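User: Here's a structure from my thesis project, written as structure tokens. My advisor, Dr. K., wants to see whether a designed sequence matches the one we expressed. Can you design one independently, without my sequence as a hint?
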């Protein structure tokens, strides 16, 4: 079964990469930009076919992919080169990959939610408060969590997550009570040993509502927003030292996690459903990461495009795109080096 889930993981990675590069590809085609090659994965080609001006290829290393456009990182006299397209068209092409990852992640999440929550959908509305809790006099049954310590509560699962981030257990809450926002300051909420299995809980339970397409769609949207925020929170935790870089995983580590999730599931159907949710998170994660303002990533290219466009208007002449190509190439080498280090760590941990 482990091999089965490894193959499933590779398939899902292929879907995410294909979706990302297809976003660049289709917007480039619609914008009149010449696409020289559309490739899935990296390394030597194991299949390729020329159709019109574009070479379509499948390569042997299941990591990444690319949509090679004419004049993307160098000057070109071709009127259909990427560098000769209008700025707004280039911006659309650059953000289209991440946009496709968001769309695919949302659709995967919607499928998961529609199957997992067939009858009921959770809400952030309090259903019951355990007696003796210090916050029992401030919170009421029927209150809906709106924000915790300034962070929005998207789904009920956010409550424990956001409360856990405050070490002293003293929180500023905003709840919706009788249709109005109510601010509650200095609310004491700490995890305590209450369950027979030894789990630490806050002594709250939440209401569920009957499932329909509308609230499934709303829950999917909120969960997708939550996943996107978790990416920024995780990056912030890495920078501040709250989380260790030891917890960072590459493709090998992710595949290993997927295999464990699948194998430990009660049935293959549940295993595939768990993997679907996992890759919905990864797809949204990729969308956010690709928009970071780092050269070689789409977000960095967007920043470079805006800066060079502004500089060209001030200077009255076109800036040679090869300089941006050098910058992207340098950071691409750094990113590849980082990927190799993370991959080595993942392989080392496997053995």
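Assistant: Designed independently from the structure alone:
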């Amino acid at each position: 079964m482990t091999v089965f889930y490894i193959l499933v993981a590779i398939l899902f990675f292929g879907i995410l990469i294909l979706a990302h590069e297809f976003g660049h590809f289709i917007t480039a085609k619609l914008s009149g930009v010449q696409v020289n090659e559309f490739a899935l994965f990296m390394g030597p080609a194991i299949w390729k076919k020329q159709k019109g001006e574009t070479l379509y290829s499948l390569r042997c290393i299941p990591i990444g992919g690319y949509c090679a456009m004419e004049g993307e990182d160098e000057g070109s006299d071709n009127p259909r080169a990427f560098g000769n397209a209008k700025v707004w068209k280039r911006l659309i092409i650059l953000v289209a990959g991440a946009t496709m990852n968001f769309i695919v992640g949302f659709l995967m999440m919607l499928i998961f939610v529609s199957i997992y929550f067939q009858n009921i959908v959770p809400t952030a509305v309090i259903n019951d408060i355990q007696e003796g809790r210090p916050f029992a006099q401030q919170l009421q049954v029927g209150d809906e969590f709106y924000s915790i310590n300034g962070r929005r509560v998207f789904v009920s699962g956010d409550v424990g997550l956001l409360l856990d981030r405050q070490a002293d257990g003293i929180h500023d809450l905003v709840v919706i009570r009788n249709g109005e926002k109510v601010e509650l300051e200095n609310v004491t909420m700490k995890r305590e040993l209450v369950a027979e299995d030894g789990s630490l809980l806050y002594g709250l339970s939440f209401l569920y509502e009957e499932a329909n397409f509308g609230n499934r769609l709303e829950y999917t949207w909120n969960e997708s927003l939550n996943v996107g925020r978790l990416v920024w929170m995780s990056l912030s935790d890495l920078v501040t030292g709250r989380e260790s870089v030891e917890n960072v995983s590459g493709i090998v580590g992710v595949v290993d996690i997927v295999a464990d999730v699948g194998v430990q599931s009660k049935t293959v159907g549940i295993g595939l459903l768990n993997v679907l949710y996992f890759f919905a998170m990864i797809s949204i994660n990729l969308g956010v990461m690709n928009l970071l303002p780092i050269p070689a990533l789409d977000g960095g290219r967007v920043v470079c495009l805006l800066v060079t466009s502004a500089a060209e208007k001030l200077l009255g002449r076109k800036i040679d795109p090869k300089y941006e190509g050098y910058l992207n190439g340098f950071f691409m080498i750094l990113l590849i080096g980082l990927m190799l280090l993370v991959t080595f760590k993942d392989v080392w941990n496997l053995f």
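When you compare it with your expressed construct, this may help: Residues 1-118+211-351 form one domain.
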